[in-house]
Amino acid sequence: MLIDKDLFWKEGFVLVKGVFTDDEVRYYRDLLVKHSKLTDESFYDKRNWTEVDGVSKHIEFWPLIYNKNLLEAVRNILPTAPRYLQYSDLHVHYGSVGWHRDIRWDNGAGGNGKIGALRVAMYFQSFEESNFKMGVMP
């Protein structure tokens, strides 16, 4: 999976499409419905669900951590081997109206500007289904 590493370092993010097959997307969507008890119709009721560290808590989601396409993309960006941090929340119909940092930088006194952590987000719905727009601040 070829990633534009220069674009990532310039913009601070990169969108990677095609990491999962259609069958994998359906499987993980079904798992999220099973755990959250929310369906696509629940989106219009404004109901949402979050499970803190849900990927780590449920063995059915563990293959996401080791997905070969995802790991290839991450390895293409990072200068060192990636490591999994146990910060893996699951969300259904959840949106953030504010902003937060997805990358931690060491730019303090004597900092070298290297990435301390890289956050990976996976979306299992299309824009047409969710009308979700990810915004990025420089």
Characterize the largest beta sheet: strand count, sense, and whether it forms a barrel.
2 strands, antiparallel
Order of helices and strands: HHEHHHEEEH
- Number of helical elements: 6
Q: Report the sheet-strand fraction.
A: 5-15%
* C-alpha Rg (nearest Å): 16 Å
The portion of residues assigned to helices is: 25-40%
Shape: globular
What's the arrangement of strands in the largest beta sheet? 1-2
Computed structural class: alpha+beta
Distance between the termini: 25 Å
Poorly predicted parts: none
Overall mean pLDDT stands at 79
Helix-strand blueprint:
Blueprint lengths: L4 H7 L10 H15 L12 E3 L2 H4 L4 H4 L2 H10 L12 E3 L10 E3 L9 E4 L8 H4 L8
Antiparallel strand pairs: 1-2, 3-4
